[in-house]
Amino acid sequence: MAKRVLLASLLIAVTPAFAALPSTVELLQSGNGYVRLRSTDPEYRQSFQSEVVEAVRTQQAQGLGLQDPGRKATAQSAAELTGEIVVVDTLRGVLAANFPDWLKQEILEDAGYTAGFDQLTDAQLDAKLPKLSIDMDALPSVSEQFVPSTNATILSVDGRVQAAGSSYPRIAGMQALGLCSKKRENKMYEKSFSLNKSMFSPVETKTGDLTTTFQTVVRGDGTVTGAVHYVMKKRCGIPYGAEYDHVEFKLVSTLGGEIAFDAKTRYEHKERLFKKNFTYDIGSYDFWVYFLEFRLQADLQFDVGVDLAMLAEAEVRAGYTLGGKANITWVCRTTSDCVKTRSEVDLKPVLKETNSYQAKAALSVIPFIDSSVGANLSLYYGLLDLVGVRVGVLTEVPVTGFAYIGNMCSDADGDGTSEQVKGAYLDVSVQFSGYFKWELLGKGATADITLDLEPIGYRKEWRQVDLNGESRMKNFYVKNLYFKDLLSEGSSLFQPVLKTPKVIKQGGTLQLATRSCYPLTGEPIYEVDFGAGGPLVRGKASELAYAYPRFGDYTVRVRLVADSQGRTFDTSWSTFRVNVSPDGKTPYYPWLATLLDQLLD
Known about the structure:
16-stranded antiparallel sheet
């Protein structure tokens, strides 16, 4: 019953708009100072069965002469209940709700009036009262305890048994015994649920070339408890109404999470230090065709200059773990806003031991020469250009110094943690591109001249250039002229990474890769000791297929020795453990297989 009478009080006290009523509550009628609702919640109806009906049955069992309710409490089922609740907050609403006279009188007395309803003014009738919920299914059971009967026996005040006539209603006897006095009991309905929430909040800021990213994840594990405090009204031990007082929400939680700080900055600068053009006329030839005079001119051009390119990048990732607790309480009343009465939050960030960083810088000085030969056919001594063609070669010799330090550059030794990596080198390469350019009556196009130079050590690359004032993508043929590792112990930047799983099937192929911060464009060439007793194998990653002859555990050694552009490296060996098993999932160990064979024999 507590749940039944409580539901309407909460809905009226907390929810001003009835459009937000839950699906299990139906709005039947509303008027000046009252609202009539119907609940279809099975749990709500069951509470009536277990509380109200049981209270009537208890009163009957005490042998006080109470007549049995007309609907027989013992036979009352949930299907017979109407589920109706009336909520009132003015005396005018009490009159409109059609309550029994005894209940109207009780509400009037609770409001502090001794005169009848007909003696009240309009202001008194419309004055707001504490919201009161009345369960309409409970009212018949309560009301029938107050009905006089001439056929019952009751106890008088002095304890003697005597027949009760119409002049001595049994209710008077019950009141004399103190059994039907009006009671107001403070009640509380509490509901708790588990809290398991996560909050993710990314924030990114940009200032010039600096980009800073914060990522915050906070998790909470605990309980949230809602306690509804109300006053229950009873007559003859049977509840018939409830007055809402306040709701108290408590949050008790352990807090955890992490804060990730990611700051990135990048500076890039390109500048042409100087450029000079040299043009040499090869010659010209004039000729006539009918009455038209043509001129064919040829020239040789050289554009010589130096470009400068600078690049600097840095990134820092700092992580903090969060730990703590929260103990917060809110109290909500109908007469005021919700007030936080307790707020204890203790959340401490702790810096992680393994934070990440990396920084790299490159400086390139790029001498270039753009040499071309061109021919132009014009009409009447150059008055009108007809056709022009030019064939040229752009040659660049970039001299690059590069340095790197950080621990965000892959895990080469396979221990699950990216180790600190250092690298510094000096690199000199040559790269050239051939092109063919034509014009016809002012319109033209440029095309690359494609050559097959890989057999002599050149590698083709596709990149953007500024050619004769035109920015376009071009094929370049690149070859290294000089490479020097500037670290005496060797740059760990060039250590290879084994991407193969630790357990592979027989006949599986090793998958090798360079570190994620590897700065060079030439295809790597590795030297591998597969650990099976065979000779060292040298080749590109795609060429290092090896079928292990038997199952077992092998120690694989790998190092980077060269690349497709002609660079050579003096790097240390990287060592990995690889297990070859029948299914490629479960490790296979010969000693274990031997032991199992012995046990099974």
